[in-house]
Specification:
- It is built from one helix and nine strands.
- By secondary structure, it is mainly beta.
- It has two domains: 8-69 and 128-143, Chitinase A, domain 3 (Roll); 73-123, Thrombin, subunit H (Beta Barrel), CATH 2.40.10.330.
- Strands 1, 2, 3, 4 and 9 form a five-stranded antiparallel beta sheet that branches. A four-stranded antiparallel beta sheet has the order 5-8-7-6, with no helix packed on it.
- A hairpin with a 7-residue loop joins strand 6 and strand 7 (107-115).
- The longest helix has 7 residues, at 43-49.
- The chain starts with 7 loop residues before the first strand and ends with a strand.
Length: 146
C-alpha cells in the first residue's frame, strides 16, 4: 500500500548535515510515527514519503529553504547579565528555554551564542536553520489513519 495523506506511517531515519555528520537518527530511540498531512515533520520530508511503500528506502536531500530556512537576524538578541539570576552560569552552545513576554506561559528554546562582560547573546532560530539536510529513511509501516 502506497503512503498517502491521512495514513499513519512509521519510519527509521538518519539525518545528516552537508558535511555528512549525523544530527539525529532513530537508532537512538523508537521509530518515528506520525500522520501524513498533519505537518508533524518537515514538509519536504513528508512530501517525499507520500507514494512510498512499506519496506522502501530512500535518500532525501532538503535544501535550506525546504528544511528549517535561513537563520533570521531578528531572532538573535542580547540580554544584560544583570537581568538574569547571578547563580546561573552560562556557556556558549548552552540551550535554554525562556518565557515569552506575552504572558501565555509559553517558552522559547534559545542557544547561547556569545558572552561578554555585560551581555549574553541568545539565538532563537532552530539549531538547524541555515543548513542543507539529507535524510536516509526507510518506511517501515503504512496503515490507514484513524
Amino acid at each position: 500500500m502506497a503512503a498517502k495523506a491521512g495514513d499513519m506511517v512509521k519510519i527509521h531515519y538518519t539525518g545528516r548535515l552537508a558535511d555528512r555528520s549525523v544530527f539525529d537518527q532513530s537508532e537512538d530511540h523508537d521509530l518515528l510515527e506520525f500522520k501524513l498531512g498533519e505537518g508533524a515533520v518537515l514538509p519536504g520530508l513528508e512530501a517525499q514519503i507520500v507514494g512510498m511503500e512499506a519496506g522502501e528506502e530512500k535518500t532525501i536531500a532538503l535544501a535550506t529553504a525546504d528544511a528549517y530556512g535561513e537563520g533570521q537576524t531578528d531572532l538573535v538578541f542580547e540580554v544584560q547579565k544583570e537581568s538574569v539570576p547571578s547563580d546561573l552560569e552560562f556557556e556558549v552552545g548552552m540551550q535554554l528555554e525562556i518565557s515569552e513576554d506575552s504572558g501565555s506561559g509559553d517558552s522559547i528554546p534559545v542557544t547561547v551564542i556569545k558572552i561578554d562582560d555585560k551581555t549574553i547573546t541568545l539565538d532563537a532560530n532552530h539549531p538547524l536553520a541555515g543548513e542543507d539536510l539529507t535524510f536516509e529513511l526507510k518506511l517501515v509501516e503504512v496503515r490507514p489513519g484513524p
